[in-house]
Amino acid sequence: MPAHEEQMSGGTAPGRVLPRALLLAMMCASVLAAESSPAAAFELFGIKLWGSSKDQDADIVDPLRYAVTITAPDADKDLVKKLENASALKGDEDRPVSGSLGLMAKARSDREQLVAALYADARYEGVVTITIDGKPLDELPPDAEFKGPQPIPVAINIAAGPKFTLGDIRLEGDAAGLMSADYGLISGGDAGSGAVLKAEALIVRTLKEQGRPLAKVTDRQIVADHTTSTLDVTLTVAAGPVAGYGATTVEGTEKVDRDFTEYMTGLKRGKQYSPQEISDARDRLLALEVFNSVTFKEADKLDADGNIPIGVQVSERKPRYFGLGGTFSNTEGLGLEGYWGHRNLFGHAEKLRIDGAISGIGSNNLSDLNYNAGIMFEKPGVIGPASKFFASFKTVLEHPDAYDHFSVKGSTGLSYELDKKQTVSAEVALDYSRITDAFGKHTYLIASVPLQYVYDNRDSRLNPTRGFRVLAYAEPSYDILSGAAFLKLKGEGSAYQSLDTASKFVLAERVAIGSIVGTGLQNVPADRRFYSGGGGSVRGYAYQGIGPKDFTGQPIGGLSFFETSVEMRIAVTDTIGIVPFVDAGTVSTKSVPNFSDVKVGAGVGLRYVTPFGPLRIDAAVPLNRDPSDPHFGIYAGIGQAF
């Protein structure tokens, strides 16, 4: 404990030792400050509770407007920005508070948040001074009234002080054998409150990974030495006993079956506790898409059998949904699609989705538009929480340049998550089709067994900045009508690297290769051959425009292909980005790609980030075009190109 302590209102005086209790409180507050952002809400005594519409201003009792100025003469630009973001007075400046009492309450709360922001930046000598209408906040009487002209002036002056570094670091109790440097606590290193809190969480996590659910920090001694601008940290940790899972209790279910929800957690009673399994169980429940939120809470003591009870709190989503979407390309025309779905058909998170689409609008004649419609059913948990049964029925009528195609296809199969990153699937499919292509008119009845393996450790599926995804696909197929048999193989990989800590620059690469073996080109249905070109592969070229063509110049597809793409995704703002890119691809009538005839396209794209994925517009030109290729291509859609 420090030799002496003092009451503070906005900072610590030079040469003093930081009181442990206040530092702990500010550490906790700093996390809230870092995670929160200004949001309009219902206001009472200067505190906003909910809502966002300016129409709510009318509900504020005795509305009082104010104007804020923030000065921090010894802070750098980054710190000034953090302080402005932490200030609720600044963030809510366009909305009135409820009277003079509301303004004073908001100012006192703001001072605490600003001090917390200073601590998060390791500024433990920082002092925050707030005046309202020229009077210091602490000198205002509780019944003070601000009757001057509005807006009432509010001045915030911040003396940031020096930046502290870590001094002496000690881990005691059951953490005594751990190395503090492994958790970011290094003498001379970052002394921000967030760094200390992160280290605490990681130390406790290490002990919990040993199967000890009750591990916790039992004592903290945190002393700021203002003579040396260092922060001494002593943490005492109790590991607690090794335990298994006890009873799993689910609350909040309405239309989703409660026992099924418990089953899908996969937490078997008596099995040794693991924080990673708890995290995986939460992700598994969210992946069912029937819950808005899922919270796991471990009991604070073991049950009579020495196991840890687990509580699960969920809130359900609306079961029905529908939507509309579209894509556009100057080479492929306009495409429209619609869908309707149910997330919880029979109470066990069964999914039913019906969708339909029309494409080629503006590019094809009305009689040559492309249509498809389908129905899909999924049932999770059929042979364990990691499994999923699926079945689908789909009909297609399409007229791309390479062929005219009508088909009816049904399939059923099973997917299984080997772990959080790896998924395998197998299905059985039967496809009846009538196709007219360069080889004439054909009727097929193809029985196939598609097999797939996916490894995916990307940090985001909508807009990844790190990690990679690898797909391996094999589809043995047999034409019941002609007796032809063939094997379709495909591999695809994509990788993403952030070139800076803020992920403002992300390098994205994709490569794909495929081959069909076992029969000749004309025995493979045209819709199962490989094609390249268009918005989803090599931009700048027409859809299916790369590869071998017949004597009329129409593509015939191939038995092999190769594609690769490189993008530099540059974030201009939080929502707008630009993407220069280069694509390349080739298609061959042989089972091995012909790398001597590779088509290359290059261009630039615009991205607008939304909660459901980036909106994408790409413009590209072919770099080694043939006379039949377009001079440029423009593509629009939802989601990154890969």
Give a quick set of tags describing it.
17-stranded antiparallel beta sheet; 4 domains; 4-stranded mixed beta sheet; Ubiquitin-like (UB roll)
Describe what this molecule looks like in 3D:
It comes from Mesorhizobium jarvisii. One of its GO terms (cellular component) is outer membrane. The chain is built from 7 helices and 31 strands. By secondary structure, it is mainly β. It has 4 domains: 63-159, Ubiquitin-like (UB roll); 165-238, Ubiquitin-like (UB roll); 244-316, Ubiquitin-like (UB roll) (Roll); 418-638, Beta Barrel (Porin). The strands form 6 sheets. The chain has a 17-stranded antiparallel sheet that branches. Helix 1 (20-35) crosses helix 4 (99-120) and helix 1 (20-35) packs across helix 5. The longest helix is centred in the first third of the chain and has 22 residues, at 99-120. The model is unreliable at 1-54 (pLDDT under 50).
Brief overview:
With 642 residues, the protein is mainly beta. 14% of the residues lie in helices and 42% in strands.
Give the beta-strand count: 31
Q: How many domains in all?
A: 4
Output the structural class: mainly beta
CATH level 4 superfamily of the largest domain: membrane protein fhac: a member of the omp85/tpsb transporter family
The third-level CATH topology of the largest domain is Porin
